[in-house]
Amino acid sequence: MSGNRAGEPAPAEPSPDAQVGLANSALVSESFHSSGTSTAFPGAKQEMWWEPAGGLRLRVTGSVSEDMYCDGGTSYTSAPLFAASLTSRGQSVTVPGRLEDTYVSTVLDTGCEVYFSIPATAKPAPDKDRGIDGGKALAYEASGAGTRDVYYLPDLSSPPKGAVRLGPLRLESTRSGRTSVTTYDSYGESFSITMPPESKIMTVEEFRAAVQG
Fold this sequence. Notes:
The chain has helices spanning 16-29, 79-88, 204-212; strands spanning 32-37, 45-51, 55-61, 66-71, 74-78, 103-107, 123-124, 130-132, 135-144, 147-154, 170-175, 178-185, 201-203. The chain is an alpha+beta fold. It contains 3 helices and 13 strands, in the order αβββββαββββββββα. It is 15% helix and 36% strand. Strands 1, 2, 3, 4, 5, 6, 7, 8, 9, 10, 11, 12 and 13 form a 13-stranded mixed β-sheet that branches.
């Protein structure tokens, strides 16, 4: 017999904060792949792979086609990509040929999930709810100075049959007028991610000294 016993309260649906928390927990604990465009580099495409036991790989393809890796709370960005990021922020940097195959390490205040987790400030935006891949997707929006991210999550209270596990299906971002769309897939699949060798890694300070010298 279905239903609750007499006098028992109906199961509570996850609150908005709980939905975001569950999605983040799933993203951290399960491998996935994402792909889309980039707000950091106009016209570029961006692809990411996450493997909890192996770390993260992010591939940018465009005017600069390079990789960034992350493992154990430390990111490793290819020198040309690191320089391109600085240039996009108004700091012109030229990478010497001898450094083109090196990576710049940065210790993060949080773990590698900073590159894909949904901000705790994300709030429900029911006017943006939509259907994605045959199921209902709930919109959560986080915005700041010149930025806006809209995450479309599965309806965790009643996920559609055959839907992916928890985690954002789609992310629409705006940064200083630039827009990007990212979709997520391949939940639970196995990816081989190898960090750069120690001999090819330098700190930010070492990189700055090298390009200035």
